[in-house]
Amino acid sequence: MLQKIVKFSFIFLCINLLNAYELKGYGATFAGDKVVELSNLYKLKTKNKISYFPIGSSGGIKQVLLNKADFAIVDIAFKDDSLEFIPFIKSPISISYNLPNISNLVLTPNLISKIFIGKIKFWNDKEIALLNPNLNLPNEKIIFFHRYDGSGTTFTISSFLKNNSDFWNLENSEFINFKLGIGKRGNKDLALFIKQTPYSIGYTSYYYTQNLNSAYLQYKGTISHPKDDNYPLQNYSYFIYKKNSSKKENIEKFIKFTKQNYNPKDDKLSYFD
User: Is pLDDT at 82 greater than 70 in this prediction?
Assistant: First the structure.
């Protein structure tokens, strides 16, 4: 009897393994750690393997169009009739900074633009001080960290500044030649370097801002923080995959699984339709 049970269990296991599948995805870094975590959970519960590589939205799009990936997660707005676009999660973009003993800095789109293009070089610049009269701003040079990879976060913030600042003189794109500052790959690394570098500033997904200060944004008569519902600087991400993909059913099973097994509010994120 025991031999029959062992034999049946072995056959059942083999059938499950034969029916298991693997999907490969690339794309956005702003919640890359969470997608990897969900992929591991999916394998644990279903025996199906999901490999996700957070290389940036631009790279993810290229991998899908070249048929080198089954899906991508992207936060760059574009159209392609050959692709399905499924809403995933949105994340506030934080203007993160490292100023000792200062946690309530307020900035405007014009001030952010001037810092990012080098017109404002020191923290105690009169324009920053005028907006923050109660802060003891240091006479220290601003160190600017930005993305050098193809980034949906870069695309979103540059589009926001182009539409809301009189001083933004760069393009709005996933790739920007900032001509100053220090380039880093991915939201996670950029946030890490801001955390390690006093007097620095940069832009990153709010998901990665643990133990980092996020500037308040004065915009259209209101002042808001990335944690607030009315904060205007938001990144929207989508699952994309080929409409004619032979793996479409399995991709959609994984997408459904992510939404059933993850509450994005736990990580300062949210779903959207």
Answer: yes
